[in-house]
Amino acid sequence: MLHYTVVFLVIALVAALLGFTGIAAGAAEIAKILFFIFIILFVISLIMGLMGRK
User: Fold this and answer.
1) Contact criterion met (CB below 8 Å) for 11 and 29
2) How far is CA 11 from CA 16, 21, 36, 40, in A?
3) Using an 8 Å Cβ cutoff, are 2 and 31 in contact?
4) Could you give the angle at which helices 2-18 and 21-52 cross, rounded to 10 degrees?
5) Domain ranges in the chain?
6) Rounded to an integer, what distance in angstroms lies between the CA atom of residue 9 and that of residue 31?
7) How far apart (Å, rounded) are the C-alpha atoms in residues 54 and 38?
8) What angle do CA 30, 17, 37 make, to 5 degrees?
9) Residue 24 and residue 15 in contact, taking contact as beta carbons nearer than 8 Å
10) Mind listing the pLDDT tens digit for each residue in 4-51?
11) Cβ distance 24 to 8 under 8 Å?
12) Taking the CA of residue 37 as centre, how many other CA atoms within 13 Å lie in the half-sphere pointing to its CB?
């Protein structure tokens, strides 16, 4: 999932450089959402892993 975040971030940067502001904003928003989902899933798996060791 982190891979998709990086892909959408690169798409947003390229679109911003070319002047496609609508596409850049959309890709940046998708990248931001995916990043936060990734962080939430990472924290959940970290907590579950620590609880499973006991």
Assistant:
1) no
2) 8, 12, 18, 23
3) no
4) 160
5) 2-52
6) 6
7) 25
8) 15
9) yes
10) 878 888 888 888 888 877 888 888 888 888 889 989 988 999 899 889
11) no
12) 11
